[in-house]
């Protein structure tokens, strides 16, 4: 018994992590999340956050959060179905449906919760979920919570998707195709027009997780569906409020019927307290700012192109990203982590991403350029990339 309480079985697993060289401490941020931060006591240029538009520490969002706290308090006090559904939550959903140009939007406490709750609620035994092999972990977990069957198609490979659709057509009641809108490790955009056509041909439903497309692609950052002009042809569009929007939360945009059903069956909403007023106030301000002007999305794209071009000119392999996500592919796992460490020593924080998050031999540092970076900060980062690249014979 003593062994059980000492968690010896976990201690052994932790030792394994150390032997594999993947044990790490959580980095500690001692400032707001912005272009330049204090990380583990040092001032560094931050190229690692999803704060695409620099909203996480924006004065307008902070003011809106404070105003919401003054009116509604620090916490919502209950789940939405009991007494945690404040008028501010409903206002947020109305604003989101306007932003996404859909009939309705249903809000969760995070993007992860949104996938965990929605997929399970809209599928059941006798259905099949067909998922891109590179979809996000929350889609994988959400699908596992469903009683539906599951199938995977090769990444953005339409022949592979059609093959699975053909095999599924007469076997299942409903078919749900799920894809990320923008794939977070390579920055490529899903082939949504082709996916929607196949879905229509095989009478399948479509579900797009646009965590990295919302606030980035389309008119005023309305997302991947807007980017391709596919409004009304995608059944469920997920967005997160934690990346470009800069706060926390998630939502699914779609029809009124979807909304009605989820408000009865989305388990993370039925059994977990709703978003705090501060978050809701700040999110609404962010959405208002996005719809008011393209200043932030324009600056994001301008900075991303500037940085990507400079790295490419130096000779770095920046993959085939179509979005501000800028991977710098190093290849070898140990070399990738060393590259990331050396960049940090010289004042640039870019996280290293290696197997199993990406395939073996494709280790990369993933640069997340934001609207908040100045050209001077980006130039400084490029200079450091060049120094370390030469030092390590990558250039
Ligand atoms: N979906 C995708 C594609 C993501 O990249 C993420 C965040 N890593 C999520 C969902 C989860 O979003 P959140 O951080 O809001 O829980």
From TrEMBL:
It comes from the Bacteria. The keyword Transferase applies. One of its GO terms (molecular function) is glycine C-acetyltransferase activity. It catalyses: 6-carboxyhexanoyl-[ACP] + L-alanine + H(+) = (8S)-8-amino-7-oxononanoate + holo-[ACP] + CO2. Its EC number is 2.3.1.47. Residues 43-384 form the Aminotransferase class I/classII large domain. InterPro entries: Aminotrans_II_pyridoxalP_BS (IPR001917), Aminotransferase_I/II_large (IPR004839), AON_synthase_class-II (IPR050087), AONS_Archaea/Firmicutes (IPR010962), AONS_Archaea/Proteobacteria (IPR004723). CDD domains: KBL_like. It holds the Pfam family Aminotran_1_2. Keywords: Acyltransferase, Pyridoxal phosphate, Transferase. Pathway: Cofactor biosynthesis; biotin biosynthesis. The keyword Acyltransferase applies. It is an enzyme of class 2 (transferase). Its cofactor is pyridoxal 5'-phosphate. NCBIfam families: bioF, gly_Cac_T_rel, PRK06939.1. Homodimer. Belongs to the class-II pyridoxal-phosphate-dependent aminotransferase family. BioF subfamily. Catalyzes the decarboxylative condensation of pimeloyl-[acyl-carrier protein] and L-alanine to produce 8-amino-7-oxononanoate (AON), [acyl-carrier protein], and carbon dioxide. This is 8-amino-7-ketopelargonate synthase. It comes from Tissierella simiarum.
């Amino acid at each position: 018994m003593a062994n059980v309480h000492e968690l010896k079985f976990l201690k052994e697993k932790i030792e394994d992590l150390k032997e594999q060289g993947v044990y790490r401490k959580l980095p500690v941020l001692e400032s707001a999340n912005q272009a330049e931060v204090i990380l583990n006591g040092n001032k560094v240029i931050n190229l690692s956050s999803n704060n695409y538009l620099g909203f996480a520490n924006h004065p307008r969002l902070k003011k809106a959060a404070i105003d919401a706290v003054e009116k509604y308090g620090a916490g919502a006090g209950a789940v939405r179905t009991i007494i945690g559904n404040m008028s501010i939550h409903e206002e947020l959903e109305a604003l989101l449906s306007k932003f996404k140009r859909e009939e309705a939007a249903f809000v969760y406490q995070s993007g992860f919760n949104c996938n965990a709750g929605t997929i399970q609620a809209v599928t059941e035994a006798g259905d099949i979920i067909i998922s891109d092999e590179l979809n996000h972990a929350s889609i994988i977990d959400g699908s596992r919570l469903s009683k539906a069957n599951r199938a995977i198609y090769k990444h953005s490979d339409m022949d592979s998707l059609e093959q699975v659709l053909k095999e599924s057509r007469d076997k299942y009641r409903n078919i749900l195709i799920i894809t990320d809108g923008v794939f977070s490790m390579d920055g490529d955009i899903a082939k949504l027009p082709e996916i929607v056509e196949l879905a229509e041909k095989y009478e399948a439903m479509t579900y797009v997780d646009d965590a990295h497309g919302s606030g980035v692609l389309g008119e005023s950052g309305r997302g991947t569906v807007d980017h391709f002009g596919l409004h009304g042809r995608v059944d469920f569009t997920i967005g997160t409020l934690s990346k470009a929007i800069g706060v926390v939360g998630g939502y699914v945009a779609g029809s009124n019927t979807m909304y009605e059903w989820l408000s009865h069956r989305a388990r993370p909403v039925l059994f977990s307290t709703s978003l705090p007023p501060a978050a809701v106030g700040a999110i609404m301000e962010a959405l208002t700012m996005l719809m008011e002007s393209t200043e932030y999305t324009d600056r994001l794209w301008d900075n991303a192109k500037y940085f990507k071009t400079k790295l490419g000119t130096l000779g770095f392999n920046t993959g085939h990203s179509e979005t501000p996500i800028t991977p710098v592919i190093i290849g070898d796992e140990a070399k990738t982590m060393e590259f990331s460490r050396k960049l940090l020593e010289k004042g640039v924080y870019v996280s290293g991403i290696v197997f199993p998050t990406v395939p073996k031999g494709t280790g990369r540092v993933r640069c997340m350029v934001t609207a908040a970076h100045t050209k001077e900060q980006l130039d400084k980062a490029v200079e450091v990339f060049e120094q370390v690249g030469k030092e390590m014979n990558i250039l």
